[in-house]
Every structure is written in C-alpha cells, then in structure tokens.
Amino acid sequence: MLVSYHRVNELGVITIDNPPVNALSYGVRKGILEAITTAHADDSKAVVILCEGRTFIAGSDISEFGKPIAEPSLPQVNAAIEALAKPVVAAIHGTALGGGFELALSCHYRCALESAFVGLPEVTLGLLPGAGGTQRVPRLIGVQAALDMMTGGQKIAASKALKLGLIDRVLSGSMKDGALAYARELVASGTGPRRIRDMSIAPESFAGEAFDAYRNRLNQRKRGQESPQKIVDCVEAAITMPFDEGLAYERSSFIERSQSEQSAALRHIFFAERQAPKVLGLDKNITPRSIDQVAVIGAGTMGGGIAMSFANAGIPVTLLELNQGGLDAGLALISQNYSVTVGKGKLSEEEAATRQALISGTTDYAALASADLVIEAVFESMDVKKQVFGRLDEVCKAGAILASNTSYLDVYEIAAATTRPLDVVGLHFFSPANVMRLLEVVRAEQTADDVVATVMRLGKRIGKVPVLAGVCFGFIGNRMLRQYAREAQLCMIEGAEPGQIDGVLTRFGMAMGPLAVGDLAGLDIGYKSRQALTAEQRGDPRSYAIADTLVEMGRLGQKTGAGYYRYDSHTRARSANPDVLAVIKAEAEKYGVSRRALSDEEILNRHLMALINEGFRILEEGIAQRPSDIDAVYVHGYGFPAYRGGPMFYASRLGLDKVYGCIDDLYKRTGEAYWKPAPLLAKLAENNQSLEDWVASND
Ligand code: 3H9
C-alpha cells in the first residue's frame, strides 16, 4: 500500500509510504487521488496529508521523466486536493521538494517540523516546477522571492519558510500529533479551505523591465542554462494570465523541459552522483570504521581546504605543519576564508566560529596518535610522500586510515613505505577543497575493503561526490586532463590564439577555458612536474614548448600579472597579451609547425574527443567503475557543464559511431598514437552497441 486513508475521529488522514523518499510515482499519485475522493465523500471535517519514513514527498519520481506520463498527473492530483471543500493540511518532515512541495502548496495549510526543509529544486534537473509551483509561489510570497527560490533551487529551512509565508506553522515534538492538533484547531475555529489559486499577486514594481533585468542577470549567473529563463517566463505568466491559463502555460513549458537535452543530462548527473559511491563487488554487510577525529598534514591551500571540509561537517581536525610559521599562515588562511563566507552572508559568525574551533594546529607528529584518518597533503614528490608515510606508520594507532591526496603518484608505492598497506588509500581532493565536490578515492592494490567502504561513506558525510578510481598516472580526472591540455597547446601552436581556445570552451559551458585555468593555477606548477619526467614521459615538445617558454620568461600566470593573458594588478581583469603571440609564433617556427586558421568547431571537437577517447581507455582498463563515474568526475572536479551531462554522456548522445568516426579521422590525419580510437570505443561502435549495453553486460 503506497497510500492509505484512515479516520482519526473527525479528521481524515492520508499517509504516503513509498521508500526511500516518497517520490510521486504513478501508484502514489493514483493512491492520493483515491484517498481524496474518499475524504470528499465521508463526513470528515478536515484532512491531513503526511508521510511515513525519513521524509515528506521529495518530488516526482525522476526516473519517470522523459517517458509518457500515466494519469493521474500531479497537476490533476493537486487540483483535486485544492478543490476539496474541507481544509487540507500538509504535514512536512524531512524535505518537501519539487512536486512534493507543490502538492503541499495545493493543500490549504502547511505545517512543518522545525528540522524540515522545503524547496523547488527542479532547476537543478533542467526542469521547472510543473505542478503549479510557478503560479502558486508568487501568489504566496511575491514575485522577487518566488523567482529567487525557483531559479536558485535551494532548500529553505522551516523557520525561514515560515517567515517568507511558504508555510503556516512550525512544529516541535511529534509531527503527527502537532499536525492533527493544527487540523483540529482549524475545525474548531470554523476555518475553511484557503486556496492559493484565489489569491492575487501582491502589487510590486516587478513589471516587464524588471523581468528583463532579471533574465539578463540570470544569463550571466547561469550561463548556457535554459531552465532558469523558462521559470522567469512562467512567473511572468502568473502575473499576466488568469490562474488556469498560467497553469496550462506552465504545464506545456514543463513538458517541453522534461524532453530537453539539458534535462536529460542533468538527470543523468543526479543519478551519477548517487551511483558513484556504490562500490561494485563490495560486501554490503561490511562494517565501516568509525571516523571521529581526522588529521591533515600540510597547512597549505589544499591542506587547509581539506581541513575545512571536515570541520564544515562537524568533524574535529588536527592540521600539522612542520614549522610554526607555516602553521600560523595556514590557520590564518582558514580564518580568512571563513570571514569571506560570513561577509557574503552565507554563514553566521557563530557558525563560522564553531567550525573554526574544530580545527586545531600542531607541529608535532605525536599529536596524530589518536586520529582515525590522516590525510597527507604535502608537496607532490614520491620521496617526500614516502617519508611522511614512514613517519605516520610510526605514530598512528592501529586501524587508522592513512590517505594521500596525491593527484598523480602511485598509491601502491606510497603504501609500500608503511608496514600496513591495507590501511592506505588515495583521497584526491580538488582545489579549493572546501568548495569542490569531487573526491577521487584511489584504491591501491592492497587497500582493505572496509577502508574503501569507510572513505566512501565519509565522502558523502562531508558533502562530496566520492568516485572510486584505480591506480594509474593521474587516475581518472588528471589522466583525461592531460589529453585535453595537450590539445589546448597544440591548437595554440598550430594557429589559434588563447582567447579563441578559451572562448570556444567557455561557450560550450566549461567553467573556464584551459589556458585561463593554467594562468590561475600558475604555469610553474605544470613546468615543475614536467621537469621531474623523462623526455619520453613529457611527450611531444609541441605540447608544452609555449608553456615552458612563458615560465622561463617569468610569466607564471595571474600571480605575476602575465601568463597566456595579462592581468590588471588591481581588478585582475584579463586581457589578451600580444607578447604571447610572438612566443607562440617563435615556438611554431622552432618546431616547424606552419600556422593556419583553426575553426571553432575543430577546437571544440579536438578537446572533447581527447577527453572521450581517454575516458573509454579508462573504462576498459577498469580505472573507473562505470561511464557515469567519469561524468561525475568531470562535472564536479573539472568544470564540465552539468547540463551537458559529462564527456561520456555527451559521447553517448552524439552516437558512438559518430564519435568513433571523428577520432579515427583525427588518427588518420595526424598519425599520432594518442588518437588511435580506444579499443572499447571501436568495439562498441562496430557492434552498434551503446555504453548502456556495455554497462548491462558487465553487471
Ligand atoms: C519534480 O518534482 C517535478 C515537479 O515539479 C513536476 C511534476 C509534474 N525520484 O539523495 P539520496 C533516490 S522534479 C526518484 O541518496 P538523501 C536516489 O536516487 C523532482 N528517486 O538521499 C537514491 O536512490 P538509491 C524534484 C529519487 O537522504 C535514494 O532515493 N525533487 C528521488 O541524501 C536516496 O536519495 C528533487 O529534485 C526522486 N525524486 O537525500 C529532489 N529523490 O538509494 C531530489 C531521491 O537507489 N532528491 N531518489 O541510490 C534529493 O534531493 C535527495 O534525494 C533528498 C534525500 C534530499 C530527498
């Protein structure tokens, strides 16, 4: 029974029970409609709608989108609720999201536990609220607040929802008792139904121009995304059209959105994030180790960001730096980061102070003796890492997990520096570590299963998207990045200017272009790591000659005011650097490259195909567990636009035969081994199979 109806004296109670999150699948919609019909016919005086389990309805069943919608649709259910002639109360605990909150908005009154959240996150799935949200919310809280809520998609805590007017009462104690008492009060006071559809929108200064200004701001903040703009259109319709026409407009916009490429991509990412922490072949009954105390070695930008990630989740952290000066600087940087967040209004001063108090500093390895997990974030050198792990082996308690934040190095070899390789794992955070959601979990040959299970669970606990990777140079993300970065360098030496390359990729939706990223990170970083490689490992000199020359000229990127671009010393504004063109031309001449005009299409194609081809190799070698893991890596760690679903999803949508043809052309044209189509890609394309077929055959 997904939905049940029973009487508690004069009240009718509709209970939804559809684990895990009470999503509004077909059976739930049908069950609610039937229960409403029963309530309509009986002599109950008011109706309460509540949910079993961990949460109120978390929205429509996302897996049903893109397929034909079986009736009753949610708008039909909501219309029936709203039309009921006796008061209906939604009783919210956990999260009332999307269609779940829209159902609550169709109820005449809403109460929520103080721990509850409400929200309309459809925008994060490339959708818009499609069951009355865009028409009811502006009527309830005004246009500006409605636009902010729906285009932002954030969850709103019950106390704030009460202030905004989204809910009517905050409950403490038992949700069911509180909700029934509220309904009884309504009955006792003779309060009838209050329908949002009958409310008028508060007169405001929000007219045509204000909508246009809002659209323009969204265009900058949510570049390339279609849904936010459509939400604005629907809210404008709430003002210009009568309620039912507005609803019809919303409905057709919602259907159009649910069939869009962007929504398919974002839904793919939603499930990819939730799939990634699941480790294939791991015993489900394994008991993870408990992690109550963490230590981080290295108080630089990375170490500090990692420490903040744990403190933000309420886990105490000890930060170790070899000398007091370095430690003080690291702690000061953390303090500054928290101040900036407070300054932006994203965190209260008290909360920032509580979090900061969880981070303590030390210069003494002995202070790590009680840590359950130690993460090393020191200089990327095998010798240094081995020394650190040797030292950890001496001081850490038995059963402590020893993790390296290495971004390229062999975790087997690092583990061999200890007497307990079973406890060693790679935990690769991405900078800024307190912001970026990706966490690559690198499983070395001997890493124990319970260690893997523990860090996967911990990753989720600190709000990251943990993705399992095998050991190879650069794991999933950086291994693919090398191919992509190579194409940026080659396109430059062959004829494109930095601005053209970055422009093509940012228009595609990347958060930043590859050359601007290089300037931001510092060109010396790549330079130093190349110095540690053999000529063979460094590869084709055309793929790093320009970068090396710039570094040797002292142009290290933003920090020196010049790299591939020039940077204003005050505003950091970026402009083209004409001197770089001379460097590019000189290097082209040195390596006998005759420069030509490259089309935007060629640039985009080469960058994406480089990622995709390597992605297929990574899959075939078992470095990544599944294609969607690679997509999660690229979206959460490398600024790949979520609304394009990640490189593997993008390849699937293009069609593997087309992708194969494109990569094979590049191979035939250049003769370069790295363009040889990955065998898995070739096999799937030849057999007319998709990545889904491949995943299914591996299950
Ligand atoms: C919508 O409502 C459109 C309407 O406007 C219009 C309609 C006409 N559907 O996240 P978790 C699964 S759009 C299907 O790990 P948590 C999830 O895949 C929807 N499945 O738990 C996972 O499965 P598994 C708007 C769903 O406690 C399991 O539940 N709503 C859905 O960390 C647990 O999920 C949203 O966008 C769903 N709606 O977080 C809300 N939701 O165990 C989406 C979850 O097999 N959901 N699953 O891997 C969330 O934000 C979080 O799941 C929530 C719980 C906060 C609720």
TrEMBL record:
Belongs to the enoyl-CoA hydratase/isomerase family. In the N-terminal section; belongs to the enoyl-CoA hydratase/isomerase family. Residues 293-469 form the 3-hydroxyacyl-CoA dehydrogenase NAD binding domain. PANTHER family: 3-HYDROXYACYL-COA DEHYDROGENASE-RELATED, 3-HYDROXYACYL-COA DEHYROGENASE. Pfam families: 3HCDH, 3HCDH_N, ECH_1. One of its GO terms (molecular function) is NAD+ binding. It comes from Marinobacter antarcticus. Residues 474-567, 603-689 form the 3-hydroxyacyl-CoA dehydrogenase C-terminal domain. This is 3-hydroxyacyl-CoA dehydrogenase. It catalyses: a (3S)-3-hydroxyacyl-CoA + NAD(+) = a 3-oxoacyl-CoA + NADH + H(+). It is found in: Peroxisome. One of its GO terms (biological process) is fatty acid beta-oxidation. Keywords: Fatty acid metabolism, Isomerase, Lipid degradation, Lipid metabolism, Lyase, Multifunctional enzyme, NAD, Oxidoreductase, Peroxisome. Pathway: Lipid metabolism; fatty acid beta-oxidation. InterPro entries: 3-OHacyl-CoA_DH_NAD-bd, 3HC_DH_C, 6-PGluconate_DH-like_C_sf, ClpP/crotonase-like_dom_sf, Enoyl-CoA_hyd/isom_CS, Enoyl-CoA_hydra/iso, NAD(P)-bd_dom_sf.
